[in-house]
Amino acid sequence: MAAKFGTSGLRGLVEELVGSVTQDHTLAFIKHMKAKRLAKSGGKIFVAMDFRASSPALRKDVAAAIAAEDMREIFLGEVPTPALAFEAMAKKSAAIMITGSHIPADRNGIKFYRPDGEITKADEKAIVAGVKKLKPAQAATEFSTEGQVAGFIERNRQAFSGKPLKGLCIGVYQHSTVARDMLMDVLEAAGAEPIPLARSETFLPVDTEAVSDETLQLLKGWCSGGAFDAIVSADGDGDRPLVADENGAVLRGDFLGLITARFLKAQVVVTPITSNSSLDAHLPHKTLRTKVGSPFVIEAMMKAKKQKARAIAGFEANGGFFTASKFKLGRAVLSPLPTRDCFLPILATLASAKKAKKPLSIFAASFALPEACAGRLENFAIEKSTSLMKQLAEPAKAAAFFKDFGTIKKRNTTDGLRLTFAGGEVIHLRPSGNAPEFRCYVEAQDAKSLLARAMGLLESHR
User: Is 101 a catalytic residue?
Assistant: First the structure.
């Protein structure tokens, strides 16, 4: 699998990224920023990375490219992606995050940020085109300065300065996420008692959207006997939240997004087509739906901003939360942060349940959202998933393929294929854009059973 852009950033196998691929894409990104007058020689580029064993090597490639373009690296170390983006935006600088997020350790990736936030799909195309036009870069002296993320930490402390989590005991599944220490800090500042759990010095690919059975068992074991009011965590680069209730049951990311949007009193909410179909009923205005991927959510938010909309926010089904407007919260005025953030949805969800004086499980159940879950088949050849999706694009063939699931009443091809059946069940198929994986999202009265059946059908066509 060649390295390429997917739903969020450039990704590929480590051996494909190390060396010229990372250097060339970084060079093309900087040249593109200069062409758009968003960067200039002698300027700064903020850089951070996750805990993957391959990230330091990629960071060296990034640093070499930055130097070749006569720019200065401000290295923040191993910190969450939203912290990097926030600090860079505050200094009106571009940024680069070296991370493969939740994908396996033999892969890695790079996320690029303009001074005003995450790059768009148009920027991605320009970078790819720029790589093809590159000439060999001249070696240059690297200039690097160590930076801090104090501003991002203070942002969260001020927003929840009223101690809204006082009295809560929160487990923090630390594993290898770069958000692990910062989560402890901000939870304690918000009044909670955070307890560290299972810190790992080896990288673990924790997917907060399709939580593994092993992780689910860990969460339930930790919560047995009423030890915690909740357990929280994040993916590798700390931009996707994981929240489990007092019983160890994981709350869906789109539910966290819904609660956070309500918590902020957002007037415009953007989310991908894969988010729960019933979210709209709990928001004051119609939800805007997009393709899957942070660039699409951000694009829709920025379009709303140009139309003079106010209180604009967005989230993905994985729970990553975005803001395109200022929001007053606690003693803080949250400046826009148009990139995924795991901290705000974690804190807002816990604070909302505490304010409602309900255990997290009861609070979540009170919204009565349809049961929904997601799964993925790894090592599903891209050519096979492409062929299958082409086949299912024909209604008659889709009806035959899903004949044992009922009559198809509605089709949506915004991103992949989302089918609504006569009984109200939803099956949404979507091949990954950057890995040999096939994702499946379902909604039903018994979502787990439906997901197992759908995944079994896909498995038989691997």
Answer: yes
